[in-house]
Amino acid sequence: MAQFWKPGTERPPLLDDDEGGILLYSASSSSSGYGYVSIEKQRQRLPVFKYRMAILYLVETHATTIVVGETGSGKTTQIPQFLKEAGWADGGRVIACTQPRRLAVQAVASRVSEEMGVKLGEEVGYTIRFEDLTDRDSTRIKFLTDGVLLREMMEDPLLTKYSVIMVDEAHERSISTDVLLGLLKKIQRRRPELRLIISSATIEAKSMAAFFHTSKKRRGLEGEDCVPKTEPAILSVEGRGFNVQIFYVEEPVSDYIQAAVSTVMSIHDQEPMGDILVFLTGQDDIDAAVRLLTEEAQNNRKSSSGLVVLPLYSGLSRADQDLVFSPIPRGKRKVVISTNIAETSLTLEGVSYVVDSGFSKQRFYNPISDIENLVVAPISKASARQRAGRAGRVRPGKCYRDMRLF
Ligand SMILES: Nc1ncnc2c1ncn2[C@@H]1O[C@H](COP(=O)(O)OP(=O)(O)OP(=O)(O)O)[C@@H](O)[C@H]1O
């Protein structure tokens, strides 16, 4: 039961209600542990916060640190801030954090600038293809795609302005990420003071560590100031405690677009308010699903409560992509139908439900024809975990997988 705060008395904690409004609750009614809290408190609640000193120690003493942080642990948004607070950006140096996708770069940079209370483009900035929101003199934490960092190497092969480079979501193993990792390993030989952080929720930490462990002697002696250990350190961080219940279909589905649309409609009919994020494979699928959903919503009994259906893929304009982050009228339910660009590093605050088709478009190289194709193929378990994680970022959620248990 909601309470009302009487001015002059101690302000009770705030809690989001199911419909997206804010209710005032007594402390004892807040069992879930989520709700409105200051950004500083939110930061402290992230699992990675208690590893702050360990991370800083490992980065200080090891050339490469591998952080296996489960989804929602806070690695992307917090580690660059820890490094900045510890002085890794002093003296005009810059901390870089790469992401495989442009949308993630923009979203994470914007969140970190908000957490630090600074204007995006000044102390915290980002660079993606065709867009550079950094300031040469003041940017200390820079988010960028791995492709952009590779391009920077053409001008500055040793990436001299960076003190720490964090390669995030390294499990995705895109060609850019792989080439970047290989070149960073070479740069480390020439710049022993450079620190690398390789992070991911699902990386094979041991094989990554073996790759970066070099027995060749670096300039200077290990253990001396500025000459870190060459053996990579590995740190595991548990995920955020918001529970995501997973549901599977009993029989295989023959049409994953239709199945996703039906799942969205039954969530809309039966589940409490909360936005829905649907993963399909590409623009064609997404446009078809938007059409089907709009038609279904018009014929549905509960259409009065309304669905706001929004597509999300990399070919959309920036303004259309930004719509997925915008609030919608109270009482409506947002349905974002996305490719895997929403799979990692993205927080869509209202999302409580994820519908996973189990497919994505993947690049396959055919060595016989020497042609690279985009093929619709089943996703990996790592991707499925990342997708489900989008439902539990700020509150408990549910993930409906339109596939059999694997
Ligand atoms: N834009 C945002 N709005 C609200 N909360 C956010 C936002 N961005 C991040 N958070 C909060 O911070 C948490 C940690 O986000 P972060 O991206 O650092 O995690 P992560 O460990 O890198 O996860 P992932 O591997 O899934 O990207 C999220 O679970 C969410 O609770």
Automatic annotation (TrEMBL):
Sequence ranges assigned to domain Helicase C-terminal in this UniProt record: 260-406
GO molecular function, one term: RNA binding
One matching Pfam family: Helicase_C
The UniProt record lists the keyword ATP-binding: yes
Leader sequence residues: none
Catalytic activity: ATP + H2O = ADP + phosphate + H(+)
Limits of the Helicase ATP-binding domain: 56-221
Record-listed E.C. numbers: 3.6.4.13
Keywords assigned: ATP-binding, Helicase, Hydrolase, Nucleotide-binding
Entry protein name: RNA helicase
Species annotation: Rhododendron simsii (Sims's rhododendron)
